[in-house]
TrEMBL record:
NCBIfam families: ygfB_yecA. This is Preprotein translocase subunit SecA. InterPro entries: SEC_C_motif, YgfB-like, YgfB-like_sf. It comes from the Bacteria.
Length: 239
């Protein structure tokens, strides 16, 4: 696992230990925490710290004892550093564990992405509803298209995009084609996460955003390469 990130190595290692402490049996892993925090700091309004701490540590403030208090302090520091990194507009350095705990294996993106999407679900205001998404409309706003495009890597890497396509009776890429798309999503994810954060800052009237390449509308071909319209493929998860 790469630990060159927002906190010094010794603080990240200590946070890992605390998250695995028996006093916090329902705490998330460090990679899941970072993913969740990236979403919690974004959105129409950031999730209050008291809420995201309870979600990350799996218990309210009055529970967990000293382990919770120390972990909460480190998570607050992590969130502060993380917000600075996201605001820079540079690709985020992700905290990832190797798949199956094998140090020689490739990084496992799934828990990180699942943590992020849990943070999206925990938002007080639904991200797409806030932007005026309407399933009955053929056209969507540039803002919705932008968010669709940048959330796509998360939905593909978690398998949600495939599940939606198969539920709709659509074909799904396989073999080398799917591997190529997955690799592209892994490569795109760090910048996409930073772009989403800055997108929501702009929505709140703080800063501006720049589109990184052409937008993908819901009636455009899906960028996963399936040949279907985006709204009938990976975009189905975002309706």
């Amino acid at each position: 696992m790469s630990i060159q990130a927002q906190l010094p190595d010794h603080q990240l290692l200590r946070l890992e230990e605390l998250l695995a402490d028996p006093a916090l049996p329902d705490a998330m892993r460090l990679d899941e925490c970072q993913g969740y925090l990236c979403a919690a700091l974004a959105g129409p309004q950031p999730i209050p710290a008291a809420q995201w701490l309870e979600d990350l540590l799996g218990c309210p403030e009055e529970s967990g004892g000293e382990a919770r208090r120390e972990a909460a302090a480190l998570l607050r520091l992590l969130a502060e550093r993380l917000e600075t990194e996201l605001a820079s507009g540079q690709p985020l350095l992700l905290l990832l564990y190797p798949a199956d705990g094998d140090e020689d294996a490739a990084s496992d993106y799934v828990p990180w992405c699942e943590g992020y999407l849990q943070g999206v679900d925990a938002a007080t205001e639904d991200w797409f509803e806030f932007l005026g998404a309407d399933d009955d409309e053929e056209k969507t706003s540039d803002e919705i298209d932008y968010l669709d495009e940048h959330l796509f890597p998360l939905y593909l890497l978690t398998g949600d995009a495939e599940a939606a396509a198969r539920a709709a009776g659509e074909e799904w890429p396989a073999g080398e084609e799917l591997e190529r798309i997955r690799q592209e999503c892994e490569d795109d994810l760090p910048q996409a996460v930073s772009n989403i954060y800055r997108f929501w800052r702009a929505q709140r009237g703080v800063g501006t955003i720049r589109r990184q390449g052409p937008k993908v509308g819901r009636n455009d071909p899906c960028p996963c390469g399936s040949g279907r319209k985006h709204k009938r493929c990976c975009g189905a998860n975002e309706s």
